[in-house]
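Feature request disguised as a bug report, sorry. It would help if multi-protein outputs had a clear separator. Right now it looks like this:
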Amino acid sequence: MSIQLRRQQLIKLLDEKGAMNVNDISQRLGVTGATVRSDLRRLEDRGIVQRFHGGARLVETDLNNDNKVECRKKRIARYAASLLNDGDSVLFDASSTVKYMVKYMRQLENMTLFTNAVSMAQELVKNPSNQVILVGGRLQDDGDLVKGIRGFSIMDGLHVAKTFISCSGFSLENGLITFDVDEAIVMRERISIAREVIALVDSTKFGKEGVAPFASLKEVSMVITDDGISTDWIKEIRSRGPELVVVDKQGNVKHFPASRGQFTIGFANLDTTSSFAADVQKGLERAAEQANLRLIVKNNQLNSEVALENVNELIEDGIDLMIEYHIDETIGAVVMDKLNRRHIPVIAVDIPMIGATYFGVDNYNAGLMAGEAMGEWIMNQWHGHFDRVFILEEPRSGSFPAARTYGQLDGMQKVLGKIPELKRMRLNCGNRKDTSRAAVKNALDIYPEAHRIAVLGFNDDSAMGALEAAAEVGREQDVVIVGQDAAAVIRDEIRNPESRIIGSTAYWPEHYGARLVKLAIKILNGEWVPNAITMEHTFITRTNINEFYPQANHKELVKAGEDSYS
């Protein structure tokens, strides 16, 4: 988790709880107490929290009051201030939203700051490490605002890293608008000298008109607003170019990257050897082409180091959204940190990652179906008796996919009763057929006297590996096997009435692509999506396989068709 994201989560916790001690915060965020205390010191310096012995509370609890435009402006300003760094050269306008940034800049040092707001200059100059320059002009009656074109001379030949501006109204056709013609002239000059133009626009400004436009959307680098903005406005702004940032009342931030006319999606696939991953990739490539999305595909090769390098390369390729499919649960936090730093939204396929939208398998229920089918077969064919249960696992994938194993065992026990630990043998299938074959062959050598062995596959490749191992040592009749995926690699076996593979839970990988693309477009357009989206499952056997995967024309898209998953 990045420092910025961690501190946002800390602020959210304090907003929810009112006050918390360091130990509780440490446990909730999964970081050390020293890290929490460091974060609290930094947030206190910025005026966000008030520390007390052993804990802290938020100073500005009114920031979550959506009924006050002032509170929305403060939230926008707080995020805007987080974009500043020590040593920056910055030009501020005199709008109320921009002025709120001052209190969140207290510990930034060695900056060169320009403003035409007297009160803002007076606050900024309290930090002696900063150079504060008041832009010249005519002093207004209120004694705070220096206004007019006389300030041009000081800006002549000037270049700054960032300028922060606001407006009276925001129009898709005319951009940022003010009611003051003279001020519009000055604002255009301010925009021309900045490398980045950052507009702070509370949601009440969208759709309001004025008399003097001063910045088109193409001239603005970023628009920061609050969560009062409508989905339609998000879509319209996204289609016109600038990066959009939406800050909600809990301090959570949504980033919508600058549009380049066509969204670019990065897809890091599990590998290219498994039929399941191949089906996912084929469907995604078709759906992306139909939706006019640019898709960049990488192969994670079931290797954590390769997966991390692929993330780096896709970030450099300028992706707008990442679809990550890897096997190693332990690298999820690193992957998310890399992408969070670039504000790239993430969809996690089958292996969840904190902060990403999950898409894929309902593991427990998928396993339960297979386990119940296994139990029924044993009850009918072996009169409820069995010698061993071989449980094919993939430890790298973590606890979430392991739920399919728990489901399989629960399903068997639902039919057959409690399965003693002594009858269970867990084998690492490595997510590959050859690894599974070797593991099962070794297990069969250990138990030569076992002639009724139930094999619970982690996926179809592992199930096929188990079948090949049994055939290799002449013990096919000693095993009965269930799979997970119902991928193409196993369907001919399921159709074979002599096969010891009695069925597999369908995950429909051929439909992942269409659903992933629909989900990606919703996220990129700022539409609400649930935190997790799972596929519906069916246990495929030789009695129902032709209903779902007709053999005659090989169009395996009937009952599980895309319409049922739209």
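(second protein starts here, but nothing in the output says so)
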Amino acid sequence: MVRIADLRSQRWFAADDMRGFAHRQRLQQMGLRRSDFMGKPVIGIINTWSDISPCHAHLRERAESVKRGILQAGGHPIEMPALSLGEVMVKPTTMLYRNLLAMECEELLRSHPVDGAVLMGGCDKTTPALLMGAISMDLPAIFCPAGPMLNGRWRGQITGAGTHTKKYWEELRAGSITPADWVDLESRMTRSHGTCNTMGTASTMTSIVEAMGFTLPGASSIPAADSAHMRMALECGERAVAMVLEEMRPSRFLGPAAFHNGLVAYMALGGSTNAAVHLLALAGRAGVPLTLADMDAQARRTPVLANLFPSGQHLMEDFFFAGGLPALLRKLSGQLELQSMTVNGKTLGENVAGANCHNHEIIRNVDNPVTNGSALAVLAGNLAPDGAVIKPSAASARYMKHVGPALVFDNHAELSARIDDPDLDVDENTVLVLRNAGPIGAPGMPEWGNLPIPKKLLARGIRDMVRISDARMSGTHYGTCVLHVAPEAAVGGPLALLESGDIVELDVEQRRLHMRVPDNVLAARKAAWRPMPKRFQRSYALLFQEHVTQADKGCDFDFLEGRGGVPEPAIF
């Protein structure tokens, strides 16, 4: 148990000198009393609320619940706003700014008089970013997830955010629904604040984080609009104070066992392919060895048990009422490291021991998986020597072994301009390829990997085909999409050498992604290849393009891996 005199915040507030006087004076300037903050754990609330982030629209209010919890537990709250990174609105992609939020979180905690933190986020990149920063800073920290939005329904049909946006867009392009239908759908699919209500990247990451022990048990499944969410936020504040006194830092519980548990949850949920990139980044910050091969091995062992879009048929509110993540984890007890500690001071085994499943159709038993396909498969071959990923559980079985000619698009603008050309040389056996859409090429590796089906094929009833890119794909999306090809085309990876008409082989069972091009031909193409000129000469984007790692390494900055290494600020 840490002594009050040894609290980090006391370096700012306890000194009987001019600088200590100034620190205390400035807090009293805001109406606080000395007794409000002296001799108490000070908890920083890192809040990613924003007016333009519907995922986080309620976090301004939830921060008040967190503050109440901190105060009731004898601590002092300090709320600090951080980059919001709401999906859809941020261009060219929130992934470009994930590392910026991670840096901001780490530096907010380092530069201010805080002893611990409550991390408030939930939209796709905010969860990994906040944790990356907190892991590197290694102060006691607990994650308070934003929670999913309520179920959607349109004309009697269940609608999941993102998943059905894509589905109905294809139906509109095919002429199966009218423009008036599309406008009507626009205002009816998303019924409340909160993250996507499918098992997209947001719920994938918050659930993984819960399995790793960084949230209160069950926190990730609570809908954002549910009153239980306010109570959970209050409990996060209370627990943050206790974590400071117990010195419960990430380094005490975030080891190999925690990452193993996160992988088990990831695969059983049928989670987003984006989690592969984020988990590698988190592991790099924690100093835990983790590779794409580890993920592939776990995917082979763990069936998809959560019957949720896009792999299944239900939504997150249904998952919550069925028992949520604790119920799912209890069914997977045989695969988990149950002795792994969590932020509430108990082991994962203790946290899930009393969990009950109330709907075995939504949270399946191990012997009754949702699909035959795994949540993830890691491919390799001469087209992706450092790896690529696919989500078999949301893909078409007929394309799991496929050979076809490539149709290559050099950038997203070309793809958009040509994809619906009636004269496009394409059929259902063609392999659509988008390149220069990776971490450096795009920049930021946008969610362009779910390439649209050409309009003339949609008119024939075709709704899937093999697609390959060095981009990412929204976790809400589906289809036979090979993603995260590494190295990316922009740095001279083999994807840069592929030409339209080249034959591409995909064999998911054999984990193979290959182009039938002779080595000497590839060598000649490589000699003739020239990199694109750098797109940025200033700004954060310049820093990004010079220091971001490839997808198989987590797309973190090469100078930010690991904990510590930065001295505490001098108090002058």
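Even a blank line would do. Unrelated, but nice: Residues 497 and 523 are 9 Å apart (CA to CA).
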